[in-house]
Amino acid sequence: MSSNRIYIFDTTLRDGEQVPGCKLNTEQKVILAKQLELLGVDIIEAGFPISSPGDFEAVVAVCKAVNEPVVCGLSRAVEKDIEVAAQALKYAKRPRIHTGIGTSDSHILHKFKTTREEIIRRAVAAVKYAKSFVEDVEFYAEDAGRTDNEYLARVIEAVVAAGATVLNIPDTTGYCLPEEYGAKIKYLQENVKGIHKATLSTHCHNDLGLATANSIAGAQNGARQIECTINGIGERAGNTSLEEVVMILKQHPYLNLDTRINTRLLNPTSLMVSEKMGMPVQPNKAIVGANAFAHSSGIHQDGVIKERNTYEIIDPEEVGVDQSRIVLTARSGRAALAFRAKEIGVNLTKEELDVTYIRFLEWADRKKEINDDDLSEILKEMQIGAMA
Ligand code: KIV
Ligand code: ZN
Description:
alpha/beta; TIM Barrel; eight-stranded parallel barrel; two-stranded parallel sheet; 13% strand; binds 3-methyl-2-oxobutanoic acid; binds zinc ion
């Protein structure tokens, strides 16, 4: 693969929706799928059609609702799964069946109780069967992160020969280090016959907090599709977060890896997913957390007020956040107090600022955060109120 385009495969509606308590109904899936289309994702994994009649119906509805993205349905390497996925994808303008099987010794010995050769046979059969329904077939080697590279290369070579168009190399348990995962992708690039006919894909879980780093390492080593979810939701500690990989690639143009994501829709999409799934976003979450553009310590506030990029590497508007926030706490300094007073219409002189700051700290030591009403009250107590 020589292109520098990175395809964004969003699995919020499948891997993301597996989170306990995050289940979506058909109407919610359709609303989110349309938002993902607006956001510019290339592939939407809409669900796992054989898992329940409700999910089957939701995948059908998503296929009817979106036009641009490829719509993908998950299946195991089982004929019935593949048939049901194909049926659910019937209305997709661009359907893709995602099929696969565990390839690590742990999966082969304990889950399937079989042999490596038998796994290759089943993988090939599944891809060939899926190809009898659709042209675009993605194969996943579940637990590829813990599969030795030599055997993984044999599996991948066999499914490429069987017609797989996309090769998903999941770090299912979030075990790999970035160097290790990057080297795995590179090994496959260099050792699988026919690999240029297909696209290598990353699918990383966040059990050690490395999902995003591993996905980027994969892309730097030749993967051209990244599987991810909005807000990084997903099984256990979650999946790679879409907003993180997209902004990493955008903020580091020398990597020469581009996506088609409209980054101004990242924050609104994050809010929508959080609301529909009833899953709050942690405030310190990169890019979309409530504090991602909030400054509360005096040193940082002074810097940001003088020049935003002293403490911000992203312009908040670029990700759909109106502006950075200067939060008033007991750690804030005079510059922040003057700034916030000005925002509510009061231009403090140097002397006024000095006396108000002392009163402000008394309040701030009692309250976690000083809001506009509190500030007005403080200024009233100090009998300061000249409008700007
Ligand atoms: O994490 C994983 O291995 C998966 C596969 C089903 C693609 O989600
Ligand atoms: Zn997964």
